[in-house]
Amino acid sequence: KALYKYKTIYQTNDSGYYRNDSRANDDEGHSDSTEGHDEDDEIYEGEYQGIPRADSDKAGGMDSTVAQAQQFRDLSAYEGERKKDQEELAQQYETILQECGHGKFQWMLYFVLGLALMADGVEIFVVGFVLPSAEKDMCLSEPNKGMLGLIVYLGMMVGAFVWGGLADRIGRRQTLLISLSINSVFAFFSSFVQGYSSFLFCRLVSGVGIGGSIPIVFSYYSEFLAQEKRGEHLSWLCMFWMIGGIYASAMAWAIIPHYGWSFQMGSAYQFHSWRVFVLVCAFPSVVAICALTTMPESPRWYLENGKHDEAWMILKQVHDTNMRAKGYPERVFSVTTIKTVKQMDELLDMGDGAAWYVKWRLKLTTLFHQVRNPAVSVSHLTSLSFSSSSSSYYGLTVWFPDMIKYLQKQEYASRTKVFVKERVDHVTFNFTLENQVHRQGKYFNDKFMNLKMKSMVFEDSLFEECYFEDITSSNTFFKNCTFIATLFYNTDLFKYRLINCKLTNSTFLHNKEGCLLSDISDENNAYMVYFVSFLGTLAVLPGNIVSALLMDKIGRLRMLAGSSVISCISCFFLSFGNSESAMIALLCLFGGISIASWNALDVLTVELYPSDKRTTAFGFLNALCKLAAVLGISIFTSFVGITKAVPILFASGALAVGSFLALKLPETRGQVLQ
């Protein structure tokens, strides 16, 4: 009976085209009640009371095994019919998009989805920009800063996997709204929380939310584009990621150094300028949510899920919007029926009597075959291409600023002034002391008042009857020094800054509360970080323009392979980056070239996978991309100040592998969207 019910469910709509629901239901009801009168399925009187047939116990085991095997055979045949429906739908859908044209509607959706992609670009930069300021407020150690830098990528990895799969189940628009809402809420909370753990958690969940942006945005937009426009306009959409980076750099430049933009309530709650920056960085996501509520769901997703009327209404809206904008309001949408794909719910097809674990086993088996069977080799190649590009790109983009900082430190250290065996008596120091080393000095009855000490080192020196008041220091240490009858009042010269020192009749009063900062923290250095990020992001613009103009002319594979090869060659020029300006120029060169390969990968991924698995596959690949980014960043940063050879060879090798694998992928230019 369960098998008979399974067959009748799927034979009511053989053509796959839209039918009236009431008529379909009437037909099904009629077949169940009157025409299904076979001898094997005949219902005798006692069965209405739950009394089994006399021979049911003997043949029960055999019948269930045969029925299950038959059901899997029927399921395979049904999957073949479903695939045929999908192919017919792809051809018809392309024809419909040609009739709808490309115009006002696509451009409105372009800017709305661009805001969501912009929010993803902003998220990448937020933590890196606030770390120099946040470490003061939260007393962050080096491991804590490293974890805070990586937590965003880990959150985006989880989010890409979760939201990508969910978008194929409940729809692109709804999933994107949920993910952006989570990102906005927790980004807002992160600007107010005070503790490190709370801030880390909020940035993690914020990253999970924004992780769905890339896989959903590209899939969503592609389903409104005809084949001759798809490659070009998906590449134009990538520009919003660049705009997000520019927005984050400009806001950091304008807000974070203004320490006056802050307030505090006692010593427990502080709201400094970097928190204002975090709050401002949530705006693109909030605006994207508001704009997305005015956009419809993807009609292709509706058709893949058997919702003909909803899809037809949206396609008519696209057609009418474009025709009115072009000055042809009289043109009528000529499509009356659209192919829909047969739907299946394996959990219901087995009947109510089957055990729950049997239902779920069939469900998971079917899902595994649906995902695995089509183009396994293509998935492996695409995964490796994403991983190689991601590890080299993100690793180098983090390695560049770290190398610039290392070169700055080297240049700063070369200007260090050294004083040996100096004697200073009865002198008041009330000016900034910076970048000096004092060895074997003697200081008697000296006063150090209202000053800053930056990168100061005192070695084997004697301080007798000296007075230190209101001292703020960074990277300052006293080594093997002796203090006799010396008073420290309202300073941050804590005892762990005094290394192997002897204190005789010396006192510390009212020490300042704060953190031990081991690095140089000044406004000029902060401005340089923002400026370098701004230039590196802006350098992507030429690559974006070139890839958009050529994507549909030379094809996706040539774009991907060519960009990877040129990026690989440009890596060797890193060996010549021995100055700050040279490193910045090489950063801009690498970013401008490599963006074309990213655009080609995004377009290829959208076109390689069918609509019912598109965001799932894209989400999985994007999650793998973020994992490779974490590994690349960890490897590259560990060699800063040690050697350039390993990062350069690693990046060049990864890009060479990516360019080779790109040639093995199928070309999708000129094909309808599967």
TrEMBL record:
A Pfam family annotated for this UniProt entry: LD_SV2
Main localization category: membrane
Compositional bias segments (type: Basic and acidic residues): 20-36
Segments for region (Disordered): 15-45
Keyword Transmembrane helix on entry: yes
GO molecular function: transmembrane transporter activity
Localization of this protein: Cytoplasmic vesicle, Secretory vesicle, Synaptic vesicle membrane; Presynapse
Keyword Transport part of the UniProt annotation: yes
GO cellular component: neuron projection; synaptic vesicle membrane
UniProt superkingdom: Eukaryota
Transmembrane domains' residue ranges: 107-134, 146-164, 176-193, 200-221, 233-256, 276-295, 527-550, 582-604, 616-639, 645-663
Entries under InterPro entries matching the protein: LD_SV2, MFS, MFS_dom, MFS_sugar_transport-like, MFS_trans_sf, Sugar_transporter_CS, SV2
Domain Major facilitator superfamily (MFS) profile: 109-669
Example GO BP: chemical synaptic transmission
Family: Belongs to the major facilitator superfamily.
Record's subunit section: Interacts with SYT1/synaptotagmin-1 in a calcium-dependent manner. Binds the adapter protein complex AP-2.
Function, as annotated: Plays a role in the control of regulated secretion in neural and endocrine cells, enhancing selectively low-frequency neurotransmission. Positively regulates vesicle fusion by maintaining the readily releasable pool of secretory vesicles.
Name the UniProt record assigns to this protein: Synaptic vesicle glycoprotein 2A
Species in which this protein is naturally found: Monopterus albus
